[in-house]
Amino acid sequence: MKEKNNNNLTLEEVDILKEVGNICVGNSTSILSQLLGGAVDVHLPGLDLLSAKELSNYIKEKGKMVYGVHAQLSGCLEGTIFLLFPEKDLLKIIGKFLKDVEVEGAESIKFGISIIKEISGISIFSYINTLSSMIRKLITTSVPNFLSGSADELLNMIIREQEQLGSICIIHTTFKEKSMEIEGSYYLILNKISADILVDFMRNPV
Fold it and tell me: CA 127 to CA 27: how far, in whole Å?
C-alpha cells in the first residue's frame, strides 16, 4: 500500500509534482535573470491539494497587495498560472526600465503595466513550454492578463469557477532576484484530474 500524506496524495505523487514545479520555475527564472540582470534563487516548491473553498486560508500573501499576470491553461491540462510580485518589488522592476524613458503621468502607468505584462508573460510562457516539453503534450495558454489587488482576492476570483470541480492542486514556488532584491511567486493551479494526468505522464513518459 502506498503511503499517503494528509492531502490524499502519495508521497511519490508529491515528489513528482514538486519536481515538475522545480524544473519549470528553474527555466522561467533563468529568463527573469536575463531580463532583470541578476542571479535568481528559487525556493523548493510547496504543493497542496485542497478545495477551492479552502484557498483563502492557504494564500501565503493573504491581505497583501500584489501585482502580476495570470493565464489560463487548456489542452492536455486545465488550470491557471500566476506570477505575482509585491508592490514594492513591482515598482523596482518598472523603475529599472523607465529610467531611460521620458514618460510621465498616465503614460508612465501604461508603460509600467506593459513592462510587467511583457516580462511576466515571457516568464510564464517559458514555464508552460517547459511543462509541455516534459510531458510531450500540447498545453496552450490564454493571453496573459494584468492583475492587481490582494493576493487572496485575486486567486479566489479566478478559482471560484472551479469550485464545482472539488479538489485543486497548487504548486507554489517563490524566488528572489539578488541584484535588485526582488521577490515573486508562481502559482500553478490545476484541477485534480489534470494533476493526475500530469503524474501519469511523468511516471510513464511516451
Answer: 7
Residue 64 grid coordinates: 497583501
CA dist 134 and 79 (Å) reads 17
CA–CA separation, 155 and 140 (whole Å): 20
Q: Are 38 and 184 in contact (CB under 8 A)?
A: no
- Asked if residue 4 has pLDDT above 50, the reply is no
pLDDT per residue over 35-59, tens digit each? Answer: 888 788 888 788 888 776 676 666 6
How many structural domains does the chain have? 1
Residue 61 has pLDDT above 70, yes or no: no
Of 102, 123, 107, 113, whose CA–CA distance to 185 is shortest?
123
Q: Which helix (H) or strand (E) holds 91?
A: helix 87-98
Q: Is residue 1 part of a domain?
A: no
Q: Is residue 187 part of a domain?
A: yes
Radius of gyration for the chain, computed over Cα atoms and rounded to the nearest angstrom: 17
pTM for the model: 0.84
Q: Measured between alpha carbons, how far is 191 from 88 in angstroms, rounded to an integer?
A: 32
